[in-house]
Design brief:
The protein is α/β, with parallel strands linked by helices. Helices cover 29% and strands 22% of the residues. The protein binds NADP nicotinamide-adenine-dinucleotide phosphate.
């Protein structure tokens, strides 16, 4: 069985990662590509600057890119989106209205009450929100994955919910691929750290996390009461967002109990053995100088979150480091896992 899929924003950093990850996918086959009017009408190889170390598949290289804003209704039913957020709201909405299932990376719909903000290991039950989208009069649906830091952060926090998560502080060290292509000018980022990321990055971390960790009650998400304070930085790393995290907990688990909670954490993707599911979604590294983006971001195809350096915090209770691949676990891989879950749940 093959399910044809389209990619909105196919020429971008996330769009390219979709193409690479779907090249050998057992269920999904890319047959349609959409981007801006700058790319429309061109073969993909002429429209995009391929930036990944894996080769661009020949059949994708030859596909003609469509103009996304005029293409609602012409693409396959299932469409992944890596559109720039300045246009994602309007275009994804038009596609959903026309009957497409949009599995999106963009921020535009994430916090809407009727839109699942999904990490399948953490809140697969939030897919039930899709039913409420009937009220919009759409023939299709929109589901979203979180901001690329939030995926890493919420996954690292999810196994700690059992200990009573109260407050958390995160300082991020985010890769340049998180800014898309061409992204941050080399003059600004080489040998430097930039203590600001536009697009409301800190606010996204402080709100999306609570929705994801929240509980589904009477068909709506009740946000988790955790209080989050986020500070973000861009660092000269290719791929992999790192978070230096502190947490306070209601209970007093010892470090061994926290590490066991991370290493033993499994979710629906593992139970269903979904094609993109990492066998162990969170791995605790015992070496004192890990995780590191250059060594650990690609673990298990870039779908595993690695944590390390768990130690007592003199201000909150514990502190640790978490890392994930921003364009795979934090973007394209996350969206593909969402679609795999939807397929197995009969929602495509
Ligand atoms: P990017 O490299 O700048 O790519 C943006 C894409 O949007 C390109 O395909 C571009 O097409 C298309 N686009 C821009 N303006 C358009 C328009 N007017 N009409 C139609 N298409 C248009 O950005 P990115 O890093 O891939 O990010 C894409 C989305 O995913 C963003 O919303 C971002 O916030 C989110 N995201 C990114 C990451 C990450 O790590 N990079 C992680 C999670 C989420 P053209 O080439 O034709 O201009």
């Amino acid at each position: 069985m093959t399910i044809e899929v389209g990619i909105l924003g196919a020429t971008g950093m996330v769009g390219q990662q979709f193409i690479a990850l779907l090249a050998k996918h057992p269920w999904f086959k890319v047959t349609w590509l959409g981007a801006s009017e700058r790319s429309a009408g061109k073969a993909f190889r002429d429209a995009a600057a391929w930036r990944l170390p894996t080769p661009l598949p020949d059949e994708i290289a030859a596909l003609t890119v469509e103009q996304a804003s005029e293409a609602a209704g012409t693409a396959p039913k299932l469409v992944f989106s890596g559109l720039d957020s300045s246009v994602a709201g309007e275009i994804e909405g038009a596609f959903a209205k026309a009957g497409h299932i949009i599995v999106s990376n963009s921020r535009n719909y994430r916090m809407d009450a009727d839109v699942p903000l999904l990490i399948p290991e953490v809140n697969a039950d939030h897919l039930a929100l899709l039913k409420a989208q009937e009220a919009r009069g759409w023939k299709g649906r929109i589901i979203t994955n979180p901001n690329c830091v939030v995926v890493v952060y919420a996954m690292a926090l999810a196994p700690l919910r059992q200990f009573g998560l109260k407050t958390s502080i995160i300082t991020t060290l985010q890769a340049i691929s998180g800014a898309g292509y061409p992204g941050v000018p080399s003059w600004d980022i080489l040998a430097n750290v930039i203590p600001f990321i536009g697009g409301g990055e800190e606010e996204k971390i402080e709100t999306e996390t609570n929705k994801i960790l929240g509980a589904l009650k009477n068909g709506a998400v009740e946000n988790h009461p955790l209080t989050v304070s986020a500070a973000v930085t861009r660092v000269p790393v290719h791929n992999g967002h790192t978070g230096s995290i502190a947490v306070s907990l209601e209970q007093r688990p010892d470090a061994a109990a926290i590490i066991a909670a991370w290493n033993g954490f499994r979710g629906k993707p593992q139970a269903l053995d979904l094609p993109s599911a990492p066998k162990q979604p969170i791995v605790y590294l015992t070496e004192p100088n890990r995780p590191q983006p250059a060594l650990d971001a690609n673990r298990d195809g870039g779908m595993t979150v690695t944590v390390g350096r768990l130690r007592r915090c003199p201000v909150l209770d514990y502190k640790f480091v978490a890392l994930g691949h921003n364009t795979i676990r934090g973007a394209a891989g996350a969206a593909i896992l969402n679609a795999e879950l939807m397929h197995r749940e009969g929602l495509l």
